[in-house]
Write a structure and sequence with these properties.
The N and C termini lie far apart (41 Å). By secondary structure, the protein is of the alpha/beta class. The protein is built from 9 helices and 8 strands. The longest helix is centred in the middle third of the chain and has 19 residues. 44% of the residues lie in helices and 13% in strands. It has a single domain, classed as Alpha-Beta Barrel (TIM Barrel). The strands form 2 sheets. Strands 2, 3, 4, 7 and 8 form a 5-stranded parallel β-sheet that branches.
C-alpha cells in the first residue's frame, strides 16, 4: 500500500466509528483477529478449517461470491464452526477497472448468496486489494456494511519463506487484524506459530472482527444451524 493510501486509511480510522470502518480493534483487547480472503478453496479451506478447529481459533472469512457459489458447503461449514463470514465482492475484479455501480451490484449478489447459505446476510465487507473510492464507500455504508481492512500483512501470497520472515519479526498487539488468504496453503502452517506468539504476549483470544464492532450482531439460531447442517 502506497504511503498516501496508508495515511488516508489510518486518518479515517481515527475519525470514523468501527461500525463503518475497521483497520484494527481496540488496543485494550486481549486478542487478535485472523482474517482470510479470496476463498473458499476446495483443497486449502477445509485444511485451514481443520487447523483452526485443532487450535481452538475463531476467524473471519471474506468470501468471493463466485467461489462461494461453487463450494457452498465450505461457507456453511465456516458458519457452523463459529467463524464470521463476510464478503469480498463477487468476482474480485481489478478495483481500478470496477465502477461503484458494478462493485455494489456484486456486493448485493454476494449478500443474497451468503444469506441463502448461512441464514443471514453478512455485514462485513473487505474490498479487493483494500482499495475503495468515496462513491464505493458511501454505497457500502448504505448497504449497512462495515468496511474491514487490516494492520498486519504477512504477505502469504509470496510463499512460505515470506510468511516465515513475517512471523520472525511479528510482535502481536491487542486489536491486530491479520490479513491472509485461504487460496494459498502457506497460511495453514502459520496458525500454530501465531497461537504461540500471541500466548507468549499474554494475548489469549483469537476473535472474529464482528466482536469489535459495537452494533447488534445477527447470530445464527439453533434452528438455522440445524437447517444448515442438514443441507
Amino acid at each position: 500500500m502506497n504511503p498516501l493510501r496508508q495515511a488516508i486509511k489510518f486518518t479515517m480510522t481515527g475519525l470514523l466509528p468501527r461500525q463503518k470502518w475497521l483497520v484494527n480493534g481496540p488496543r485494550s483487547a486481549n486478542g487478535i483477529a485472523l482474517t482470510f480472503d479470496d476463498g473458499p478453496h476446495p483443497e486449502f479451506t477445509p485444511r485451514l478449517l481443520d487447523e483452526l478447529q485443532r487450535q481452538g481459533v475463531a476467524a473471519t472469512f471474506f468470501v468471493v461470491g463466485d467461489a462461494a457459489a461453487r463450494y457452498p458447503e465450505l461457507v456453511r461449514r465456516m458458519a457452523v464452526e463459529g467463524h464470521a463470514v463476510g464478503t469480498h465482492s463477487y468476482t474480485h475484479s481489478e478495483p481500478r477497472q470496477t465502477c461503484a455501480k458494478q462493485l455494489l451490484n456484486e456486493v448485493r449478489r454476494s449478500l443474497d448468496l451468503c444469506g441463502n447459505l448461512i441464514g443471514y446476510e453478512p455485514t462485513l465487507f473487505r474490498p479487493p486489494k483494500g482499495q475503495l473510492t468515496l462513491a464505493k464507500t458511501l454505497g457500502l455504508w448504505k448497504l449497512k456494511q462495515t468496511v474491514v481492512l487490516w494492520n498486519q500483512d504477512p504477505r502469504d501470497y509470496q510463499g512460505l519463506s515470506g510468511i516465515q520472515s513475517w512471523l520472525n519479526q511479528y510482535q502481536p498487539r491487542g486489536g491486530d487484524i491479520v490479513l491472509m488468504h485461504d487460496i494459498h496453503p502457506h497460511c495453514i502452517a502459520a496458525i500454530a506459530p501465531l497461537v504461540r506468539l500471541a500466548e507468549a504476549r499474554q494475548l489469549t483470544e483469537f476473535v472474529r472482527v464482528d466482536q469489535w464492532i459495537q452494533k447488534p450482531k445477527r447470530e445464527v439460531s439453533d434452528l438455522e444451524l440445524q437447517s444448515i447442517q442438514k443441507t
